[in-house]
Specification:
- Helix content is about 45%, strand content about 15%.
- The chain has about 260 residues and is an alpha/beta fold.
- The chain has one domain: 3-Layer(aba) Sandwich (Glycerol-3-phosphate (1)-acyltransferase), CATH 3.40.1130.
- Strands 1-7-6-2-5-3-4 form a seven-stranded mixed sheet, sandwiched between helices.
């Protein structure tokens, strides 16, 4: 009986959490971001302030989910420099669940990220992605250009090399986009390893499919990949991005988070 009550409560808490998430995005778009526009000199300063708001909001959202007993969060100890570097940094993470993007943007204070074009039309989140000037994934060549520009301005760019959430039980498949971006911008890649046990909010699960026990999202900062060895003048960019992607795949597969 206790397990049944606990599961019912977590279902209720999950519904409350996602309702608050959607309403929060709408309130920010209607009230907070227009106020930021009034006091900001240019588009870049508006986006930076909007990302700060998102960062704090996501921290509060995770705190609420933990307080409601929906999720536990285990973030390993790390220095401030793990997610910050002058000159730009690509943060490359695996993508086991819907919540991991929230976790990463709650850690990276002014982080930029690549998001689906469909979010621009979302009534709850459209105002957020426009205000933060996140990068749309709709055009591959323009996407590369925008990502390189962001990194050269010193931004931290959060990327999921799988390009979508991991399908449980299926082999990890990485696209070369993250490697191409890092090579073009000449910035390192910070590996981040994420696991969610028990599995929930995957691509194959609906939000109301509640696991039998409270899930824990575990996040660990991994190696920082220096790309200098992959930028040899005599090597074709396509070959360099393939070799770098293969190294990232190896690092993910070696991770305790992936294999635990």
């Amino acid at each position: 009986m206790g397990a049944l009550i606990d599961r019912a409560w977590r279902l209720f808490g999950t519904a409350v959490s996602f309702t608050v998430f959607g309403i929060g995005g709408l309130v920010q778009a209607i009230l907070i971001f227009p106020a930021i526009s009034l006091v900001s000199r240019d588009k870049e300063s508006r986006a930076r302030r909007a990302r700060w708001v998102v960062n704090r909001s996501f921290r509060g959202f995770l705190w609420m989910m933990h307080g409601l007993g929906v999720f536990d969060f285990d973030v390993g100890r790390k220095s401030k420099d793990d997610f910050v570097r002058d000159g730009g940094l690509v943060v490359a993470a695996n993508h086991p669940t819907l919540i991991d993007v929230v976790q990463l943007l709650a850690e990276v204070e002014h982080g930029n990220c690549i998001v689906k074009r469909a979010l621009w039309r979302n009534p709850f989140l459209g105002g957020v992605v426009r205000a933060t000037n996140y990068i749309s994934n709709d055009d591959s060549e323009e996407l590369l250009t925008k990502c390189v520009e962001a990194l050269r301005k010193g931004e931290t760019l959060v990327i999921f090399p799988e390009a979508t959430r991991t399908v449980p039980g299926q082999p990890m498949r990485l696209r070369r986009g993250a490697a191409r971006i890092a090579l073009a911008a000449n910035v390192p890649i910070q590996m981040v390893h994420i696991s969610c046990r028990p599995s929930t909010l995957t691509k194959a699960e609906h939000w109301y499919e509640i696991p039998t026990r409270r899930p824990c999202l575990r996040t660990r900062v991994g190696d920082r990949l220096d790309i200098a060895a992959f930028r040899k003048a005599e090597e074709e960019p396509s070959m360099a991005s393939r070799r770098l992607t293969e190294l990232m795949h190896k690092k993910f597969m070696e991770s305790d988070n992936y294999n635990e």
